[in-house]
Amino acid sequence: MTTNDNLRISLESAARGADWLRQLLQPDGSFRGGSDLRAYYKTPAALLASGHSIDAHRVMDHIEARYLRSAGDLDGQGVPWIDLYRTYPHSWIAVAAMMSGRFELARELTGYIATHHNAASGGFYADAAHTIEEVMTTSMAGLACLWTGRHDLGLAAASWLERLYTSQPDLRSGLYTSWRDGLVLDMQDPGAFVDSAKTRQYYFQYGISAALLTSAAGMTGDLKWLELAKSFLRASEFAGPDRYQTPQSGKIGWGAAWTYRMTKAPEELALVGAVARGLAALQNDDGSWLVTGVYGGASAEADSATIDITSEFVALQSFLAQV
What we know:
The chain has a single domain, classed as Glycosyltransferase, CATH 1.50.10. Helices cover 54% and strands 3% of the residues. It is built from twelve helices and four strands; from the N terminus they run H-H-H-H-H-E-H-H-E-E-E-H-H-H-H-H. The chain has a two-stranded antiparallel sheet with strand order 1-3. Helix 7 crosses helix 8, helix 8 (204-220) packs parallel to helix 10 and helix 9 (223-235) packs antiparallel against helix 10 (250-263). The two termini are 16 Å apart.
């Protein structure tokens, strides 16, 4: 399949997903079926990336009116994982706020994100209790900090990823993704290890790390970050046979797209195409996606979980198309 074929797939997939989201959007910026923050934190980035800036601003207006708390925190009531990934929604909205010139919103959110930074390790605590750090939360928080001018915190997150990568015992067996005064090797925690011997793993950990590291390389000009981004992406090749074909694969495409923009290497472009096709194959006929990753399907019920995953894949397919 050619690069133009992959471009068409990404663009058509993003457009169909954006249309599904926009059909749910109400005049006040809320979504029909959107009962909690999951329906809102990724949608501004999705709408901006797919070319619907006015709708994105309406959603951010609603976020500010309904979910923004004092000191830049967000109301996460009803989100089942909010205490496990405490700043993840803040990071997505902060990036979208910078994309749209809403500096005041970005500043508030990043101020809250900074309260979860661990100066000793350079990472960001994932959980509300400040007991553990992991790749996705640290990478997204680092991206938000790079975008909003907190470069010291963003680069500290990149250094945290470097330590985590160099501490890996055997990347062929999988990727350990959590840190608690050192690499967490507890195999009982399914989120702490991407197991190469199993399928449907947290493959996004390979990609979101590359997105941050490539951004750090672009901002500083230090190509060691670019090499580390490539190393995370190459490590994904040891993962299970479905590594580019599940809902957990999308961020590999994101990291590969941003890395390819700097390297122009065919390996990264091949990853972009593989993930673009994988996400498109999972898309429902109505343009939505399901978190379960069922292939095909005519439609999906409009609820917070479905709006969440659909928003992410609209944003990611748009990012893939841009390269």
